[in-house]
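Summary for the lay section of the report: proteins are chains of building blocks that fold into shapes. Here we show the chain for Asparagine synthase and then a coded description of the shape we predicted for it.
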Amino acid sequence: MDALRLEWAEGAPRLRTSEAMARQGLVTTVSSRAGTAAVVGWVGSARDRAAGARSLLDDSGRQGAAPPVPAGDYAAVLVYHDRILLMRDEQARIPLFFRESGGRVSAVSTSVRCLGSVTELEPRYFCRYLTGNMAQPHSDLTPFARVHRVLGGEVVELSRTGQMRSRTLRRARRATDPPEPTADGSCLDEAARELRLALENAVGCRMGTTTACHVSGGTDSTSVALLAARLLAAERGGAGDLVLLAGRFSRGELAAEQPYLDVAMEEIRRHTPAARPVIVDADDVADFDDFQHHAGDADEPHAHAFRAPFWARLHAAAAELGCDTLLTGCGADPIADANPFHLHRLARTGALRQMAEQARAWAAGSERGLWDIVRAYVVQPALPLAAERITALLRGGTVLGGLGTFNRPGWLRSGFARAHGYREAGIAESRFVFGRKPEQSLYDAANYVSAPDLLSWQRAQQDGFFLSHPFLDPEVVATMSRLPAAATFQPGRPKAVLREAMADLLPAPIRGRTVKVPFNDLYARGLRTHGDELIALCRSARHPLIAEMFDVETLCRAVREAQLGLGDAYSWDRVNSSLALVAWLERLDRRSGALGAPVPVTAAS
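The coded shape description reads as follows.
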């Protein structure tokens, strides 16, 4: 989707924005004597987007200054008298791309599709994409040759004529770190206070005039909605409206969530009686519904397009009520829970006895075997590709047997993988996921797998809002990452710090629950319903890259195995990603990169 575009005419920059998205408040343009800024999304506060855009323009325009990238959900183009800056926030929810050749940028856009050529694809991107579902947002590569991605937290500086000057990564401005909690009984209390403050700030800055909160009855989404309700109740003059958005299932496994959902809704409305509950009947929704639309029309391949039907149903309900932002609880599982890779830190620093004791406690608390814990959080991070290869040998016999996050799937042709760097892509992905310090890499990786943001971006113009995720706020992540294990690790009590932080708000049934029903039922139903269609899609595919890349019959066998329940979440992710890529390539020629009705923005001169 093309929300803004920067091009050059007769050597001068020309910046245009989408008129429709500007009317919706999704794009904000401000100008001063220094220059012009076009911001997609919001900087600082979702409610005062113009002030945030002005602050970004002023702060970034100061000579000799290199301020931290401010927090928010945005992509921005800033045109000054002497330079041009392209930037995104650290969460990197809103895309930004540039087309470059010979050190000169010829165009910038939020749409990779409008910058690229369907006849000049980048095979290395597809290898990186197929290594796992984290590959897209943190890689410079895009599906199109000579089109690059501005990374999260990156500032790209160009000359006024488009010559590339620099690319730098900057951290967001952080709150002053408080003293680290002590190891005595006050450890959990102090950690909870820190998290509560950070989460309140994250929710507050994301609230709009009409805010929707996704409520599922779990600890995470209920916490976000309760904080939003409390913040609205504390304001005077009715500064905003609150919509409580939920999907209802009356049959299947997910029906067991309904009592928790009812309790959550009741408690939230106790704080803000004017909050409007919107319960969307989702009994007829299944994964892979209208898959070719959701996967094929995305700006780039969307690994989680199979789950789009459920989210799209909720989005439509929020859009009908005029919501201008939608908050979710996405990201809380890896961010707010105890960090299991702390065991890796103990092992690599030689604290083997302490590591073994904590691994036993972790195994008992999670009802898993000791070896499973050690393999997942100590061995796998140390030797990720080797560990997966051994697992594949031990669990072989089927297409999905032993297929983990980095192993080459059996349907990806070995010749294509060798020619276009699949092994190198797997190494790069494993280093990103685990890094030198896996306990820190967990937070970086969580930012890119915890939310359906490509769907949000794809639907933004028709919905009028973007998704926003308070648990993935940089301040929340920084708060959790600096807490000692003594504060976060409570065997048998997941997300102990979050539960303590929300103890005065969460109703007892939700605060005490430790297990939430997954969406496996939707996935199984989707494969039962659409499995034959997905196989037909693969067999009828005509894009030449599909046959070059995939052994189609092996991919079809993998779909059949997934239908039968074989494999696990990792292997199913690999099937889903590949199916989404097939659908995307098949519809590549059917989409237009037109900006629509643009508003010319006069660049500073």
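Put simply, here is one thing we learned. The chain is about 45% helix and 15% strand.
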